[in-house]
User: Fold this.
Amino acid sequence: MQTRIRVPIPAALVCAVAIAGSVPSLAAQDQAPSRAAALFRRVSPAVVRVEVFDVKSNAKTTTGSGFYVSRDGHLVTNYHVVADWILDPDNHRMQVIGGEDTASVEVLTIDIVNDLAILHTGRRAPAILRMAAARPRQGEDLFALGYPGDLGIAIVQGTYNGHLEHTLHAQIHFTGSLNPGMSGGPTLNRRGDVVGINVATAGNQVSFLVPGERAGFLMAFADDSGYVAPEDYLPVIDSQMTANQAAYVDRMLAGEMVTTALGPFEVPTRPAPFFDCWGATDDDAAPQWEYVYHQCTTDDRIYLSDGYHGPIVRLHYTMVRAGNVNTFQFHRQLSSLLNNARFWMGGGDETTAFRCENDNIRVDDHAYHAVLCARRLIRLPDLYDVTFRAVSLGTRPVALLTTLRMSAVGFDNALRTVQTLLESITWTR
Amino acid sequence: MDPVIFVEVFDHRGRMQRREVVTAFPVRLGRSYRNDVILDDPRVDPEHAELRVAPDGTLVLADLGSVNGIRRTRRGRRRPRIRVKTGTRVWIGGTPVRFCTADQPVAPAVAHATGMFADSGILQRGPGAILAVVAGLTVLAMGEGIGDTGTEANAAATAFGVTIGFGFLLLLWAVVWGLTQRGVVKRFRLLPHLAWVSLVAAALWLVSRLFEYVSFALPHWGWLEGAEGLVMFVGFAGLILGHLALMDRPRGPPRLVMALGIAMALEGMSLALGDFEEASENRTLTINAPVKPVPPALVAGTSIEAWSARMERVRVRVDALAERASTRRRKRDATE
Assistant:
């Protein structure tokens, strides 16, 4: 069903992922060997390896990269690099390794939406990096640094390709090979200023960076003299994710819904400009049935833990058109479509089990049989995963199955989205 | 005065053949026609045994030097004499015989099965029973086959598969009851049980579909689920009651009590298994919302606002789950 393959996966984590060697950029070999070498000599002392240890086994659970941004020992890395420690500080410890030097480190603040964390070591930084003042031009050479696969420090040359089109939160499209372990490392322009922070890859040199200014804002916040790091990060995560989903849903529901035709149905598509829609038709699966799929999602992802990460909103329609079948067959097929909910749900230990409620909804003169399922994030009391499915009634021989899946949202926001969605769907008999 | 004694002659499968009243003693038992009680058994001597009144007034059965003797049980030791009270069973040669006085207690009468459960009823006679099996399986096969979502050939295959599958299950169930009946009254009857279970299974299948339709059209009637459970339980108890009724000589507690007891035990077992499933439920999403061919006009629908308000209950339920999980986690952390 899903035709998309370019799902970004977090450029994490575990050292065992380290087999695949990075493909060196051809451009790097031909044009700028000396530039990369010079840059590397200058900036590499500021780039460190960040390691999270499991206390009981006394071995690494995660390695990533980070870089110094202040002489006092402030470091920038990804939230997902230190997530194990943040979510379970009693059973983990952290250290940073720069050259021969190993130092213990603490987390000062996090930005879970942009997947960033500011760390602090007690030591003076051997070198620091500055955020770039201006955005690069498309095609400009960038240099990513980090510790891929725990193999040792590496510099990777690539190009700047602007911001991703289908995200609410800006991410830089970097054409260069980021590999697991480079997460949290800097990507620099030719002058050695930080353009972005390595965060994820979709393979084949398609990689993603958090814009450097995000880290700049976070650093300014943590560097304030009155700032005290929180004891427990769960309330911070909760409030950041809650604020984010509220803003996300507001942006999504603001303005007119754009609709598109699916057979006799007019359905909202691309709820907001940062959504991206894909479709397919399947008429060979069974002779009597035709399915038309239309789905919209965004490339924004929230990484909470290894078991819980993904986009916030997924909207999916299936239009069914039946050939020569009787009403029992037709409705039996609708039942199996509605009840077949084998989505990847993840969740790990973060969520409760699902609970569902069936109902029939009438909007104007349209009727739906609907089921709402929800589960809560156990440690984040304001956030739920909500799956809504509804099938149109009285539209035989066609029917519309609408699926809205929202992760880590407020319950009321999910209901509000369902409401707007159903109010925007129309059909003619 | 000599007592009045009833001599009851059984066949080797335990069914009574004859009952003779004797008043004059001694009473001679054997195969020859000169006896008071004639036993038609090649292992019985022409003059086999004699029932006498002893000087103290008690009755004694004495062996008259027979080939196979008299015994208290079939494989027991042969004895020269056996003291006889009311209800005493003895084996004379290969024939079980019981001696009773007029004081012999008897079991209270059981209600005579009537209607289709009676010996002459539709379930107990071949053609009626076969018709019931065919009717029951037809309902199940049609019901499943007509809604098959594939081609016509698929629908036929589904109907055939359902017939075979359900037929096998029903047969298995009927065999269990047939064997039970054989254990109780030494008579193996399969067809009446098969006919009964086919009818009831088809009826319960229809009832559960009916409930699906009603709860689809009226999702707010939360009590429907409980009502369906109750109806299904009553149906199940009725199924067992029918099987007991077909076994024409039940012993022990009244049929209704037994039927309810058995139904409750089986229901309890399935509930326990259900609970087990619930407990092992992981984080996968299971939706159970059948869509039924009911015209939208007959479907009770709520406005989107009322729906939103009603969905609060989902939030309440998952909040409760989360609270429980947090408490568990805190306890676990505390023990570490």
Remarks:
- Chain A touches chain B through 64 residues (CB under 8 Å).
- The first strand of chain A starts at residue 9 and ends at 10.
- Chain A has a mean pLDDT of 85.
